[in-house]
Amino acid sequence: MPHFKSLNSGDSINIIAPASAAPIERLNNGLEWLNQQGYEAHLPKDLLKPRLFFASPLENQVRHVKEAFKSDSLVLWCLRGGYGSARLIPYLEKLKKPAQKKLLIGFSDITALHLYLGQKWGWPTIHGRVLTQMDPKAKRRPDLKIYRQLLEGKIKSLTYSGLVPMNEAAKKSRTVSGSVTGGNLRLLECSIGTGWELEARGKILFLEDVGERGYSVHRMLVHLTQAGLLEGVRAIVLGDFTEGLESDGKDRTREALQAFADESSIPVLRGMPCGHGEKNHPLPFHTKATLKLGKRGTLKVATGF
Asked: Quick check: is 255 catalytic?
């Protein structure tokens, strides 16, 4: 399994914005958090030149990412999600794979980059908070502490316990193994037919989303199924599905996910503290993982350090 070098105080972290922009105040909060942890943030002066849905023009975003790959920094931390990361992939395909592995951190729209770096370059990545979510004033978010411990190599694995089985396949006591992949459900559906299409056979698939109503969530899962992308998946673990209210004010995403689980022969479990909810614990992708099924599921994932 590929390993990353752990960080020390004073090490640099590259900030990239491959998707949407963010208010300068949110950027400054994230930079302050990094400074509190003893890290040095490197970011281009033209990181934020908002255009339409994007943090900056495409040529800027491509240049920023290329410069980050060439830098001495070991970590690429994404500013935020939103929309736009997939546009960079054709340009990544033209790059020679860097000799030094870089650790990508981000989630939501960053799912496209997670898939590309993991599937094409064989790099572990971290599905986790974007920089704008690293609040220097937040003292009661235990998951924030985990990020520093992870980066410094103090944590070799992360365990997520108390996962709730949603179908009969998940209730049978047994252990499945395989790396974790996945991310934002909408982005995974968008990968169909592309060069970075989700490759989940033999793996544990993690799913989360925001702003999708129940019928839309179920439709995307049916699409992934009929497109063959769920064939050979060892298990599916669900994170947060938020802001999916219907016009009558009800949230039917849980019902939609349960309907999918009832229809599936793949073990499906919920309860991962990851995604667009208040908690967003880091989840390593493309590393060794084991999932114990039964009355309550437990997922243990190597961090890659």
From this structure: no
